[in-house]
Write a structure and sequence with these properties.
Mean pLDDT: 87
Radius of gyration: 56 Å
Subcellular location: Cytoplasm
InterPro entries: Clathrin_H-chain/VPS_repeat, CNH_dom, Vam6/VPS39/TRAP1, VPS39/TGF_beta_rcpt-assoc_1, VPS39/TGFA1_Znf
CATH class of the domain at 6-310: Mainly Beta
Protein name: Transforming growth factor beta receptor associated protein 1
Shape: elongated
CATH topology of the domain at 6-310: Methylamine Dehydrogenase, Chain H
Keywords: Cytoplasm, Protein transport, Transport
CATH superfamily of the domain at 6-310: YVTN repeat-like/Quinoprotein amine dehydrogenase
Organism: Podarcis muralis
Structural class: alpha+beta
Number of strands: 30
C-alpha cells in the first residue's frame, strides 16, 4: 500500500550544468553539506553550492549556484568523487588514478600525492586507524583480483594492505575491518585484518549490475537474485527480511526507515521495518542513486534531483488518515532513533491515541483498549463521544488538533443501534477497569458519573455495586439520570452515599408503599429494616419505626434488637422509650423484652416481670382456644416455664397471684420453689400433677447453684412426699423406689433406711444400697488421700524448719550489717536463708539498695 514518503525536487537542471553542450553526460556525483560536486564524461568537475529553501506551504526546494568548473585534462570520464571534509579534500577517480584536490578551489594538492591503478574506490565510514586527520580508502586495483587499502592524509597517501580475492571484484563496500565484495559469481565478506572470508550467496555480474551498499554498522545491502534486496551482516547472516525490488535495479540508497531503489523507469521506496513497498515515483533514464548524510540524490545523464523525505509525523498522519493503523505504528516505532526522546514520547502517545480511536470506530475494542492504555489517553476524550455522559459541570475540552473525526457516537455508528450498544458495552468495561487506576486521577467524578449513567441506561447489575462502594458520582447529574431511567432504589443508594439518608428512606418507603415502581429488590422492606438497624441518625429511626412495625411486627422490631454492638454498649436507645413505642405492637413488644432479658441479660425487675406477664397472658389466651393452638400453646408454656425457672428478678408473688385460680400447676410449683416453699411445690408435682419425672427435675434445677446438704434436703423432702402420703398408692411407692435407685448419691443411707417401710425387700433397693455403699467408700478414700497429702506437706515444712535451726549463727563485733555495713551493737539481728545478717531496723526499712534487694528477693526468703 502506498504512502507519500518522498518528493522529487530538481536540483541541477541541464541548462545550468552544460548549457548547449549536448554531449556532456553526468558520470558521478558527491554531496558534502551544501557542497555538490558533479563529475562528467568530458573529464570535468562542476562545483555547486546547494541551498535548501522551505516555503510557507512546507514544500522544500533548492537553489543552486555554480561555484567552479574544473577541467582535469585526462580526456577520460570522471569515474568517482568522494569528499573528505575533515581534510578539506576531494578524492577524484579519473583514468585509473585517484587525485587529491582542494574541496573549495578544486586545485590538486601541491605535493601531487595520488593513488594509481584504481578502477573503483570507497571510503571506510567506520575507520579503524583512530587518526582523525586521515581517511581509509579501499580500492579495486587494476591488478587482477587485487584489493588495496590506503591511508590518505592531507598531503600524502600511504598503502596499508594488499589482498588477493578468489575472483575479480566488481563492487566493494567497507565497514571497519570488513569488506563486502561483489565478485564475478558471488558476494563475500572478507576480514582484511585476519584474511578470513565468508561466502554469502551466488550472483552473476554478467546478467545484472551488482550493488553493494553499507547501510549500518557491520551491515550491508546487496542486490540479490530474483529481484531481492538482501541484508547481510559481517557474520554472514541476515537480520532483516529482504525487500522485493525490480530485476533491473541500478542503484540503491538508504534514508531510514526506507530503502530507495532505482531502475530504468522508476524510483521505488521500501520500508526497512516491514519490507513493504511504500511509494513508486516515475523516473526515466536514471543511472545514479546515492545517499549523502541522509540526503538522497538521484541523477540522469543530464540533471540532478533530490528526493526530499516528508516529515515522519506527516507520513504517520497520512497513514492514520487512511486507517492503516499497523503501518503507522510500525513507522512510528521505527522513527524513535531519528527523534529526540521527549518529543518522540509525546508524538508516540498521540499516535497511539489516534490509532485507538480508529480501531474503536471499526469496533476492534480489544485493540482499541490496548492502544488507549499505551497512549495514556485522557479517558474523557472517549467519554465525550457519548452524548450527555460527561457531567454538566465538567470543564473538559477535546484535544486540539482532534484525535479523531467524529462529533459523537451517533455519527460514528451512523445510527446503528447494535453498534451503539456494543460501543456502550465497551465503554462500561473500560471505565470499570480504569476508574481505580492512575488513568482516572484528577477526574474521577467524570469517570464515575459516566459509568453510573451507562449502568442506569442499560440496567446493568453493576450499578448497585458501584453505588455501595466508594465512588465519586456527582449527585446532581447522577440523580437526574437515575430518576429519568426509574432507578429509584439506586437513587436512594446515591442519596445515602452523599449523606442524605432521609431522602433515601423517603424514596424507598414510596417504593414499598407502591407509590412509585421499581422492582430492583423484592426484599426492599427487609433492606429498609437493615438500613435503619445500622442507621446512626436516631431521629430517622424513630421517624420510620411506626411504619416498619405496622408492616411486620416480627421483622420491624429488628431496628431495636439488632443494633450494632457499639451502639448496644452505649445503650443509645432507652428501653423504656422503646417499650412505650411497642405497646401497640404486642408481638414486637415480646420480642424486644426477650432481647433485653434473654440476650442482653438486663438486670431490671420490671423487664423480667413484664415479659413473664406477657408470656402468661399468651398461655392463658391459647388455653382458652382449647385444642386449636396446641402446638403454639406448648411453645408458649415452654418459654414461660424457662423464664420462671432461670430468672430470679421478676416479682414472684405478683406472678403467683395472677396464676392462682388457673390450671397452671407446673408454673405454680416453679414459683413456690422460688419462694423456698418446696413442700408446696413438691405436693403439686406429686399429688396434683402426678408428674414424678418433673418432681425429680424440680429437685435438680432448684439445687443447681446450692451446696450438697441443700440438694440432699430437697431429695429427702421428695422422698418423704412419696412415703408419707395419706393414701398408700402403689404408684407412689414405685416412684420412691425409682428415686432412690436413680439418685443414690443424693441421699443419706442411714436416714433413708429409717423412712422406708419394713416390708420393702433388699432386692428392691439393691441399686440404691450398692450406690450408697460405693459413694460412702469413695468418700472415705478421698478423705484418707487428703489426709495423707496434708501430712506429707506438714512433714516437708517440718524438715525444712529443722534444717534451718541446725545451722549455727555466729555474731561477733567484726560482723557488719549487709544493708548499712555498720557493726552490730546488740545481739538482736535478722538472718536470711542465704546466711546474710542485718539489723532488725534495716530489715524493716523499705528503701534497700539494689544489691541487697537482689539477695532478699529469693523465693525462700523467710527469716
Amino acid at each position: 500500500m502506498s504512502v507519500k514518503a518522498f518528493r522529487l525536487v530538481p536540483a541541477v537542471e541541464r541548462d545550468l550544468l552544460m548549457g548547449d553542450k549536448a554531449r556532456i553526460n553526468i558520470e558521478c556525483i558527491e554531496c558534502c553539506g551544501k557542497n555538490l560536486y558533479i563529475g562528467t564524461n568530458d573529464c570535468s568537475i562542476y562545483y555547486f553550492l546547494l541551498e535548501e529553501k522551505n516555503s510557507p506551504a512546507e514544500k522544500t526546494s533548492f537553489s543552486v549556484s555554480k561555484q567552479l568548473h574544473k577541467y582535469l585534462s585526462f580526456r577520460k570520464p570522471v569515474g568517482e568523487l568522494k569528499a573528505a571534509s575533515a581534510l578539506n579534500r576531494l578524492l577524484v577517480l579519473c583514468d585509473n588514478t585517484i587525485t587529491l584536490m582542494n574541496m573549495m578551489n578544486l586545485e590538486p594538492i601541491p605535493t601531487g600525492a595520488r593513488i594509481k591503478g584504481a578502477t573503483m574506490f570507497t571510503l571506510n565510514e567506520n575507520p579503524m586507524s583512530g587518526d582523525p586527520f586521515c581517511v581509509e580508502v579501499c580500492i579495486v586495483s587494476v591488478k587482477r583480483r587485487t584489493i588495496q587499502l590506503f591511508l590518505v592524509y592531507e598531503d600524502r597517501v600511504q598503502i596499508v594492505k594488499e589482498l588477493l580475492t578468489p575472483e575479480q571484484p566488481c563492487a566493494v563496500a567497507i565497514d571497519g575491518h570488513y569488506l563486502c565484495l561483489a565478485l564475478t559469481t558471488q558476494y563475500i565478506i572478507l576480514n582484511y585484518d585476519t584474511g578470513v572470508s565468508q561466502d554469502l550467496f551466488p550472483y552473476s555480474s554478467e546478467e545484472r549490475r551488482p550493488i553493494v551498499k553499507r547501510v549500518g554498522r557491520q551491515e550491508f545491502l546487496l542486490a540479490g537474485p530474483g529481484g531481492l534486496g538482501m541484508f547481510a551482516t559481517v557474520d554472514g547472516i541476515s537480520q532483516r527480511a529482504p525487500v522485493h525490488w525490480s530485476e533491473n535495479v541500478v542503484g540503491a540508497a538508504l534514508c531510514f526507515p526506507y530503502v530507495v531503489a532505482l531502475d530504468e523507469e522508476f524510483i521505488t521506496v521500501h520500508s526497512m521495518l516491514d519490507q513493504q513497498q511504500k511509494q513508486t515515483l516515475p523516473f526515466k533514464d536514471g543511472h545514479i542513486l546515492q545517499d549523502f548524510e541522509g540526503r538522497v540524490i538521484v541523477a540522469t545523464t543530464k540533471g540532478v534531483y533530490i528526493l526530499v523525505p516528508l516529515p515522519l509525523e506527516t507520513q504517520i498522519q497520512d497513514l492514520l488518515a487512511s486507517h492503516r493503523v499497523e503501518e503507522a505504528l510500525v513507522l512510528a516505532k521505527g522513527a524513535r532513533r531519528n527523534i529526540p526522546k521527549e518529543k518522540f514520547q509525546v508524538m508516540y502517545k498521540r499516535i497511539l491515541q489516534q490509532a485507538g480511536f480508529i480501531q474503536f470506530a471499526q469496533l476492534q475494542f480489544l485493540e482499541a483498549k490496548e492502544l488507549f492504555r499505551g497512549g495514556q489517553l485522557d479517558v474523557r476524550e472517549l467519554i465525550s463521544l457519548y452524548p450527555f455522559l460527561l457531567p454538566s459541570s465538567s470543564s473538559f475540552m477535546r484535544t486540539h488538533p482532534p484525535l479523531h473525526e467524529y462529533a459523537d457516537l451517533n455519527q460514528l455508528t451512523q445510527g446503528d443501534q447494535e453498534k451503539m450498544a456494543k460501543c456502550k458495552q465497551f465503554l462500561m468495561s473500560y471505565l470499570n477497569e480504569v476508574r481505580s487506576t492512575d488513568v482516572a486521577n484528577g477526574y474521577k467524578e467524570d469517570v464515575d458519573t459516566a459509568l453510573l449513567k451507562l449502568y442506569a441506561e442499560s440496567g446493568h447489575e453493576s450499578l448497585l455495586d458501584l453505588l455501595v462502594s466508594e465512588n465519586f458520582c456527582l449527585l446532581a447529574d447522577s440523580a437526574a439520570w437515575l430518576e429519568k431511567h426509574k432507578k429509584f432504589f439506586a437513587l436512594g443508594l446515591l442519596y445515602h452515599a452523599n449523606g442524605q439518608d432521609a431522602a433515601a428512606l423517603q424514596l424507598w418507603v414510596k417504593i414499598v408503599n407502591g407509590d412509585i415502581q421499581d422492582s430492583t429488590r423484592t426484599d426492599l422492606y427487609e433492606y429498609i429494616v437493615d438500613f435503619l438497624t445500622s442507621c446512626a441518625d436516631h431521629e430517622l429511626v424513630w421517624k420510620y419505626a411506626e411504619w416498619v412495625l405496622q408492616r411486620s411486627e416480627e421483622v420491624g422490631v429488628y431496628i431495636f434488637t439488632r443494633r450494632p454492638l457499639e451502639e448496644e454498649q452505649k445503650n443509645s436507645f432507652n428501653p423504656d422509650d422503646v417499650i412505650s413505642c411497642l405497646n401497640k405492637y404486642p408481638v414486637s413488644l415480646v420480642k424486644y423484652l426477650e432481647f433485653l432479658v434473654l440476650e442482653r441479660r438486663v438486670k431490671k425487675e420490671k423487664f423480667h416481670t413484664h415479659l413473664a406477664v406477657l408470656y402468661l397472658e399468651e398461655v392463658l389466651r391459647l388455653k382458652s382456644l382449647a385444642a386449636e393452638k396446641s402446638e403454639e400453646l406448648s411453645t408458649s408454656q415452654a418459654k414461660l416455664r424457662s423464664l420462671l425457672q432461670k430468672s430470679d428478678l421478676y416479682r414472684i408473688r405478683f406472678i403467683l397471684d395472677k396464676i392462682s385460680g388457673t390450671d397452671l400447676h407446673m408454673e405454680c410449683a416453679i414459683l413456690f420453689g422460688k419462694l423456698e416453699q418446696h413442700d408446696k411445690a413438691l405436693h403439686i408435682l406429686v399429688h396434683e400433677l402426678k408428674d414424678f419425672a418433673a418432681a425429680e427435675e424440680y429437685c435438680v434445677w432448684n439445687s443447681e447453684s446450692k451446696d450438697l446438704p441443700y440438694r440432699k434436703k430437697l431429695f429427702h423432702m421428695l422422698l418423704s412426699e412419696y412415703l408419707n402420703s395419706s393414701t398408700s398408692e402403689h404408684q407412689l411407692a414405685m416412684a420412691a423406689v425409682d428415686l432412690l435407685n436413680n439418685h443414690a448419691a443424693e441421699f443419706d443411707a442411714a436416714c433413708v433406711l429409717q423412712l422406708i417401710p419394713d416390708t420393702w425387700s433388699v432386692q428392691l433397693l439393691s441399686s440404691f444400697l450398692c450406690g450408697s455403699m460405693r459413694e460412702s467408700i469413695h468418700a472415705q478414700r478421698m478423705t484418707q488421700i487428703a489426709l495423707g497429702l496434708a501430712k506429707a506437706e506438714n512433714l516437708t515444712y517440718t524438715h525444712e524448719k529443722v534444717k534451718l535451726k541446725g545451722i549455727a549463727t555466729v555474731l561477733s563485733d567484726r560482723k557488719v550489717c549487709q544493708m548499712c555495713q555498720s557493726p552490730f551493737s546488740e545481739p538482736a539481728f535478722v538472718r536470711y536463708p542465704n546466711g546474710s545478717m542485718v539489723h532488725t531496723h534495716c530489715a524493716a526499712n523499705r528503701h534497700v539498695n539494689s544489691s541487697t534487694n537482689h539477695h532478699l528477693s529469693s523465693p525462700s526468703g523467710r527469716t
